[in-house]
UniProtKB/TrEMBL annotation:
PANTHER family: ENOS INTERACTING PROTEIN, NITRIC OXIDE SYNTHASE-INTERACTING PROTEIN
Major localization class: nucleus
CDD domains (alphabetical): RING-Ubox1_NOSIP
Organism: Rhodosorus marinus
Domain Nitric oxide synthase-interacting protein zinc-finger: 4-74
GO MF, one annotated term: ubiquitin protein ligase activity
Protein family per UniProt: Belongs to the NOSIP family.
Protein name: Nitric oxide synthase-interacting protein zinc-finger domain-containing protein
UniProt GO cellular component terms: nucleus
Span list, region Disordered: 89-137, 155-174
Amino acid sequence: MTRHSKNNTDGAVFTYHEKKEAGFGSKSQRVGADSVREFDCCCLSLQPCRDPMVSPDGYLFDKEYIYQNLLKQKKKIKALTKEWEEQEARAQADNEDKREKQREHDVEEFSRLETGSRSRMKQGEDGPRTTGVTSHGLDVTNKLQFNFWLPTNTPDAGSQRIRKPDPKTKNPISKKPLRVKELVAVKFTPVSNKANRTTEEEKKFGRYMCPVCSRTLTNSVKSGVIRTSGTVICSECIARFVEKEKIDPISGKPLDFKKDIIFLKSGGTAYAASKGDEKKVAEKYMPAMRV
C-alpha cells in the first residue's frame, strides 16, 4: 500500500470527498423507474385501482382508500373541535373567576378607603419581618428559592393552546379542500388484446387505452377524464374534439373544455427531462457539520 493511500485524509483542507463520506449534510438521489407511480395507480395505496375515483385537481384514488382517509379526517376534526370547545369553555370560566375576584377586591379597597380603616396586626405578631439580604442582593430567609430540585420549583411549560381546527376535509396529496361528492368515478377502457397478457406485460405495454383512437395509455401519454361520463381519453383526442369542437367524442354531447375535463396527475417517466407531475429526486436530511 502506497504512502498516499495511508495518508489520504490528513490534509489541511477538508475535501468534498471527505465531507461526502463523513455522512453529514443533506443527500439527494434521483429515483429510478421502479419508484415512479403509474398513472392508473392509487396515490394512497400505490397499487392499480379497482374502483378508481379522481379528485378535481387530477389525483387518482381507489374508492376504498380515499373514503377511509376522508372518514378518518372527519373523526379527527370532530375530536379536535370537541377539545377546542372544552378549552374555550375553561378559558371563559377562568376569566369569569378573575373578573369576580377583581370585583371583590375593588369593593374591599373602596370600603377600606371610605371608612379609613387599616389592617391591624394579628395578636402574637411582632411587627414586620426583617428580610436578611446578603451583599449580593439575595434573600437568604427564603431558602426554597435555592432548592431548584424540588418538584414545586421546577418550571412549568403550561398547557399548549389548541387552535380552532379547520372543518373541511382535505386531499391527502395536494392538501386542498376535498369532499366526497366532488370525487368523480373513472372508467378506464381495457386494451382489446389483454386476455393473454401477464402482469409484467401489462405494466410494460399498458393496461388501458383511449376508446377514441385506441392508443395505449402510459405515463408518457397525458390523459384526462371527462367529468360527465368518467371516460378516460388521451390528450390528443381532448385537444381535437373537446377543445376545438367542444363535444364528447363518445356520446356527442356538448362539453366545456375548462369545466368538464380533469387531467390525470402522472408520475412521468424515469427520464430527467420528462415533464412529470411528481418529483424525481429523493432527499434525506442529515446533521450538518460546521467546518
